[in-house]
Amino acid sequence: MRHIAIISSSVREGRKSHNVSLYFQSYLQENKLATTEILDLKAYHFPVFEGTLKTLINPAENVLEFAEKIKSSDGIIIVTPEYNGGYPASLKNAIDLLYEEWKHKPIAIVTVSNGPFGGSQALVSLQFTLWKMMAWTIPAMFSVPTVDKAYDENGKAMDKSNSDKLAAVFIKELLWCIEADKAPQHQLAL
After folding, report:
1. What is the pLDDT of residues 87-102, one digit of tens each?
2. pTM of the model as a whole
3. How far apart are CA 24 and CA 13, in angstroms?
4. 78 pairs with which residues across the strands?
């Protein structure tokens, strides 16, 4: 069974995007699609970016742990709120900390907002950053408008039927990319 790390990227008080991270963890486990763990950036307390992991002289234990969890996962779901048209500094900090760990890693992006557009502006800038890191962002999107009305604090969807339907398409694409990434190189020749 594949292992998917879910990055909960908001570190601020009263965050609602974390609820969506909990939803995806439950969805994947209940449907027996993958093992999961949430990498909650609020719990990591990373220092402001000073250099990549490779350049740090004495990296903190939590930095090494985070790097290993990213590297060892088969795929990643990033759940991010949209702040002023972009994604949070906590996420940019965590992305910039690593480099090789992101290379060719299948990544699915979930964006959320309090407004009606579900974080669509954050998606574009996050995709570009991950592209520069040579990550493989899947083409499927999962946007959550008015997040405070969509998921409760335990990750339960207010409209479970619709959320599960959208998640099925989204996760199917991520799993396909994970399997393609694991395919022997000779099968990928043109």
Report:
1. 999 999 899 989 899 9
2. 0.92
3. 21
4. 7, 109
